[in-house]
Amino acid sequence: MSTLTDNMPKEPLVPNKLSTPKPIKPWKATPKQLLPDFLGAIVAVVTSLVVVAFSPMAGILGFILTFIVISIITAASISGIRQDRKAAANSVSTMVIYFLAAFVLLPVVSIIFEIIRKGAPGLSFGIFFDDMSVTASDAPLSEGGLLHALVGSLYVVVLATIVSIPIGILTALYLTEVKGRAAGTVRFFVQAMSGVPSIVAGLFIYAVWMISLGGTYTTAAGSLALAILMIPTVARTAEEVLKLIPTDLREAGLALGATQWKTVALVVIPAARSGLITAVILGTARVAGETAPLLLTIGGNDAMNWNPLSGNNSALPFYVWKNFGLGTETGADRAWTGIFVLMVVVMIFFSIARVLGNKKG
Amino acid sequence: MNNERENEMSETKTNSLASIAAARTPGTTAMGVGLEARSVHAWFGQKHVLSDISLDFYAGTVTALIGPSGCGKSTFIRILNRMHEFIPSAAMAGEVLLDGKDVYRAGVDVTKIRLGIGMVFQKPNPFPSMTIKENVLSGLKLAQIKINNADELLEDCLVRAGLWSEVKDRLDQYGGTLSGGQQQRLCIARSLAVKPQVLLMDEPCSALDPGSTLRIEETIRDLSKTMTIVIVTHNMQQAARVSDYTGFFLSDGGPGELVEAAPTSHIFSNPKDKRTEDYVTGRFG
Amino acid sequence: MHDQPVSILENPVNPVPTKVPEPREITTEPRLSDRVFRTVVSSGGFISLVVLGLISLFLLYEGLNIFRSEGLSFITSFEWVAESIENGTEASYGIGAMLYGTLVIGFIGLFFGFPLALGAALFLSYYAPEWLKKPMVLVIDIMAAIPSIVFGLWGYFVLMPQAEEWARLINKYLGFIPIFSMPGDFYTRSPFIAGLVLAVMIIPIITSISREVFAQTPLDRIQAAYALGATRWSMIRAVVIPYGKGGVIGGAMLGLGRAIGETVAVYTVLNLVYDIRPEIFLSAGGSVASLIVNKFGEATPPELKALMAAGFVLFIVTLAVNFLANAIINRTARQG
Q1: 3 state SS of B96
Q2: What ipTM is given for this predicted complex?
Q3: Which one of A26, A242, B46, C43 has the lowest number of neighbouring Cβ atoms within 10 Å?
Q4: Superfamily of domain A147-359
């Protein structure tokens, strides 16, 4: 026994709780260990600057390209020398992936920067209270406004939402509650429907509304085209939400003797409410900026049109399109201001959906 | 691996242990102390899950870690080969010495540590996109090790894992075509291919049927002639069958602790601690 | 258990076979309210199918005459001429050049967008520090929410001047390769620029699909690779890529589907020319969707029919690409 205790754990078996050490994460690199990487980064920047200065490569583009190449080489050599070939390959891939990820962010940053830079100067209170009915297209930005487009957008989006809410949510209920024999097929087609090009939705409504039914350009026609694009978004998001509702909740309802209809109406849907609202708002965010289908269906208008069932109307994307199409400088400025307003609207929808979506967990 | 050096270093220690646990015939290859845990603690976020574990794993022996669920056995062996750090909230304290050098020392190449200390998991997890042959040699590919005698190594590993006779005619089939027990032995063969000094096994038989379990236990006994093995198990009979030493872990709601560690026969026949006795006699757990 | 009935049957002295009961059929007669509920929900569920069916029917019906008169040359011919009495031209509708152009810009978009999206997805799944993940996912989600007209104007005013310079540089050094050659200095509104805009537009969908697939990679395989001494990169190559390959390809195809159907963004940065040109930097390209917007405004009734026919082709092509993509993604999601 005595020899055993000599060889077995030397510490007391019951640890002294008073002397618990501090938790550490020894796998995290210390500043000292990061030093070579840091020096490597400096070397890469300096070398790139030198190479760019003494070679035909010029400008920011030249610097970026040189920097990428040099930093990858530097990273590979540092880990190659410190460790081995395996580590070098790992460093190269890490650098490449970091650069790819950074380049993904670049366009978004650029787009938002440009929208603010080019769109903000045209903003004024006036544009929200005036339309373009009496303003010449080359008039200064202080004249006229986009109220008609804003109202038109509101109309098409609200009408499209009214049409697509029942269809989208019924589809989701079919997939999660009724679970009919065709559920797989329906799901597959809904997935496919979300890939329908927006221009095709516009053409379809044109073929039905204008050609077959002999109708004219109206707000309602535009909203139907948008509804086609909105249904799959609402249906798919709502399905995800309903899937998260635990089965026991449904069984609890059924076990109490409620019909399926009552269970769904009084238990499932209330439980999923905020998620379903998120689904709808995501759908509106998706269609609020759609341009192509509106070009074929609402006709465009420079004046207010409060009647959704008759007469041409405008919408924010349409307003942007039209002013950009003028090819003039004021036209472009108005277009950018329109984009600014459009983006604010889309981002508001987007943020509401986010906040609601996060709240449900 | 470093037989000679360590032979000198700890001959006495191994001999004395061998005399105590003579009935169990511990590792016949004298390789000295293989792996040593020194005052190891573990945390997940603020939760202290493992407190002050010091335990030596003698080279060429099988050490079983037993204890009820949630006592930190798995966390402990994942600390030994630095798999612990994949959990974002994880933290630790203490040292793990392989050949006397801390595996957590600054600047160490963690991939080399894991090459030296292999691991077999609870659920057999061969790579489904690879054939049996590719699976066995996958460690070499992952660690970018070049060898000349791949076929020899392949056969050697499969023989040692006790799988060669069953798969030698279908090395180019996919790993998923094997039975659960065969898959687990394939995973053992895969770990052997990178020539680890230590093999950690985290409940390797818990997903297998009794027949496969016995085959794996035979394999473990055979392997212990050439390497150090640490096995976490819920099955006390298994611990009694395969191990030379046994460590008993327990958590009373707080962090897991090592209650007792001794040669297996002592733990099962003559435990020093009352709690160990209660556990091995099945009074709780 | 199993032997017993057999021996009984073999023994004529005791001919009474054990009687296996017929499984009882459990029938529930749903209450009226439930039958109404199920009918309403089911019919709602089928509306998507009906709409898809109606789209193809109406477009096909409207375009039928064109398909009849043009035949296969509607797909293969490059010429798009409306009937005009003043000019004395006879109608001839062919979207060959537009289809070709659509594929060209789609593949340029994938060429640039796919590696970026894959890199971003790998970064988010395996490289990004915790604090960076959420903001970056948010940025990519915002990117997905930006309307296409915004991409169009950004492409026209911001990207195009830059991209023209890049094209000039590439032409200067690699101009001997046919696709980079140029007959003159006409770099504006080229397939290259349209492709770049599409690349930005399809990044979000490819990134999010790839990320979803990567997130499903079995953890035990990842751990097995690390336990064998893998670096992050060798683990990704051995485990993540083989597992997620199908889903990533499916995501790329969904991106291609988006690119094919994109209208206004492409129209603003692409000069439509009814000809097939190999030079991707030349201000001459094609896109079926842009053709529709381009010609729609002043189309004569017969030309409108031709546009409907073009819309039908576009619809079928995107539907096929989407079907295939979703089938691949769903199969990947189900694999073990």
Answers
A1: strand
A2: 0.88
A3: B46
A4: MetI-like (1.10.3720.10)
